[in-house]
Amino acid sequence: MKPERHDFAASFRYACHGILHALKSEVNLKIHVSAAAMVFLAAALLDVGKWEWLSLLLASALVICAELFNTAVEAVVDLVSPESHPLARIAKDTAAGAVLVTAVFAAAVGIIVFYGPVTAWFKS
Ligand SMILES: Nc1ncnc2c1ncn2[C@@H]1O[C@H](COP(=O)(O)OP(=O)(O)OP(=O)(O)O)[C@@H](O)[C@H]1O
């Protein structure tokens, strides 16, 4: 049954519940969040600039958002099509493809941002 109308605080709680559920159930999301934490630590240690921080934050947020949407698509597909179906496969594979695209983008951003500071650190 659909819940009654709710306020902003309730919407915020539901959103946090969704994120926590995905964090508990999706290994890939745990990996992405851990990777983002390590990237932020490296960025702080290497003292990268404002625009580099912005790029890293944007790339990390994109990957995590894509993973959350992927989790949502998987749940809906499992709900409406527990049996094997070509359209269910397309929905899940496409959602996974979106995560892959954002992960490749994040890897490229990481290389662009860290290449200079890391080589300079090794030379020093
Ligand atoms: N109902 C279905 N009908 C057809 N193919 C499906 C169906 N469910 C899953 N698949 C196929 O199996 C693959 C794996 O599906 P699964 O639900 O295990 O997700 P997953 O990729 O393992 O996600 P995660 O590990 O993040 O939970 C899908 O990408 C799809 O190709």
Key structural traits:
about 120 residues; mainly alpha; Helix Hairpins; about 85% helix; globular; binds adenosine-5'-triphosphate
Structure characterization notes:
The chain has 124 residues and is mainly alpha-helical. It has one domain (8-123): Helix Hairpins, CATH 1.10.287. 85% of the residues lie in helices and 0% in strands. It has four helices and no strands. Helix 2 runs antiparallel to helix 3 and helix 3 (50-80) runs antiparallel to helix 4. The longest helix is centred in the last third of the chain and has 38 residues, at 86-123. The protein is globular, with a radius of gyration of 18 Å. The model has no long low-confidence stretch (mean pLDDT 95). Bound molecules: adenosine-5'-triphosphate.
Note the topology.
Elements: H1 8-25, H2 27-45, H3 50-80, H4 86-123
Adenosine-5'-triphosphate binds next to helix 3 and helix 4.
Report how far the terminal alpha carbons are from each other.
63 Å
Which overall shape is indicated by the principal axes computed on the Cα atoms? globular
Low-confidence stretches: none
Average pLDDT, to the nearest integer? 95
CATH topology type: Helix Hairpins
Distinct small molecules bound, one entry per kind: adenosine-5'-triphosphate
Please count the helical segments.
Answer: 4
Largest beta-sheet characterization: none
InterPro entries: DAGK, DAGK_sf, UDPK
Family: Belongs to the bacterial diacylglycerol kinase family.
Cofactor: Mg(2+)
Active site: 67 (proton acceptor)
